Amino acid sequence: MTALTSVLIVDDEPAIRDLMARWVRALGLQPDTAANAYEALAALRTQPYDLAVIDVMLPGHDGLWLTSQLRRDHPQTAVVLATAYTALLGDDEAAQPIADLLIKPFQRDRFALAIERSRRWREQVLDEQRWHELLSTELEQRIGDLCTDLARHSADERDESETLLAMSRERAPDVADHSERVAVTAGKIAREIGAADAGRLAGVLEVAGRFHDIGKLAIPMALLTKPSRLAPGEDAIMRKHVDAGAKILARTRTLRDVAPIVFASHEWFGGEGYPRKLAGHAIPLASRILAIADAYDAMTHDREYRVRLHSADAVSEILRCCPAQFDPEIVTAFLAVLSRG
Question: Which residues contact 131 (CB under 8 A, 6 or more apart)?
Fold first, then answer.
């Protein structure tokens, strides 16, 4: 059972602060108090707290603002909001990741229940953190193992491309099939654009497309085969497949040139992608092409957690996400390719 020992009480009414502090002590816990958000943040800079009980109607920055600061800088601290004015809580505020909501006036038994709910909330958060740390460790180990295997095969003068393709087909055949389709589509889009070096670009993209998801070979199978949507922490680890793929490709002799393309393949044209939040033409052209080919194929094929979309629905989604996610000029070229079948 996860311990919960330290409690920060944030309320601008001294009598209420003192009453809650007495209740906290009676439960065998250690209380500290603050009269406003600034005092609370000052206390948090001196020590971490397991729980913060925060009045919504604080002077200056209110309790919702303070809660957002805790979620950002102290994600392991459980938060209980207290208010007499529930009508002031909009849908977004009411949906904040808090352990409990106390409606003033509340009794001692209800306060004790909020403490217990906070303990359970914090236990879940810490369990998830430990799970994510295990997944991250496994990811790094698998990257190392893949690079070692690739180096060993390369020493035997086996073709690096064939070696990686064989690994992909053996460990994640669905990923391998997806990558082959993406490679074909990306090459067609490159030729459709009609750039002066379209032939060379198409050839590069056919290679990059084939290996754009090679980093998923390092992703723990628990995430690749999860039958439901990934939790936020799990999704953060899944996103590291672009880093993993770039690392693996960068360590090869013959495929290292496509590593930067793979690394930028999940950037968004509007700047909200990952891992570097590049925007517009700061994203390599090949990566912008790859992004559309990848997204379309992913949407039109079944995944562990959802069924495929019809082609028309996938196109509608791409158009909806343009230009926030996709380069409009490349979307136009993609639609021309798609119209010819």
Answer: 233
Instruction: Please tell me the predicted confidence (pLDDT) of residue 94.
Output: 46
In eight-state DSSP terms, residue 305 is: T
DSSP string, 31-58: EEEESSHHHHHHHHHHS--SEEEEESS-
In a shared domain, residues 256 and 323? yes
Q: How is residue 326 annotated by DSSP?
A: S
> Are the beta carbons of 211 and 249 closer than 8 angstroms?
yes
**pLDDT number for residue 93:** 47
Which range in 142-156, 157-171, 198-212 is most confidently predicted, on average pLDDT? 198-212
Hey, which residues does 53 pair with through a beta bridge? 9, 80
* First vs last C-alpha separation in the chain: 59
Whole-model pTM: value is 0.78
Pair of tokens at residue 51: 């729980």
Sheet holding 30-34, edge to edge: 30-34, 6-10, 51-55, 78-83, 100-103
Closest alpha carbon to 268 in 251, 297, 244, 288: 288
Domain count, the chain: 2
- Nearest partner of 189 among 173, 212, 206, judged by Cα: 206
For 62, which DSSP code? Answer: -
The residues near 224 (Cβ < 8 Å, ≥ 6 apart) are 172, 175, 216, 304
Domain presence at residue 133: no
pLDDT at position 339, please? 93
Q: Mean pLDDT across the stretch 199-221?
A: 95
pLDDT of residue 150: 86
For residue 84, the enclosing domain spans 6-125
* CB neighbourhood size of 271 (10 A): 14
Q: Are residues 118 and 185 in the same domain?
A: no
